Amino acid sequence: MSNINESLDALMSIDGAVGTAVVDYESGMVLGTQGGGVDLELAGAGNTEVVKAKMATMESLGIEGDIEDILITLDTQLHIIRPTLNLKGLFIYLVLDKTKSNLALARRKVQSIETTLEI
What we know:
Roadblock/LC7 family protein
């Protein structure tokens, strides 16, 4: 088990990591950040709306199950949003440099870190 700061350290060790945050998507409040690349406070609040919208859409469509992750691909960056399964109401947000990262490995590492995160 790891706390938020240990989890953020582990996330920033991922190849190509630029910035990361742990966010409460019920309130939009960012619980911790490391790095940069974007305004992580603003991105956390904005991505709260992305998570809520996807969950509402799944409910409207009658889709059962949990979101594993949401990927946003930009010209130079990859953004991974991973709602935590063990801590309801939170998500991990990771910004990667597209040219320096391996998406498959990053997703696996985020999944691993998510399972050990505790508040």
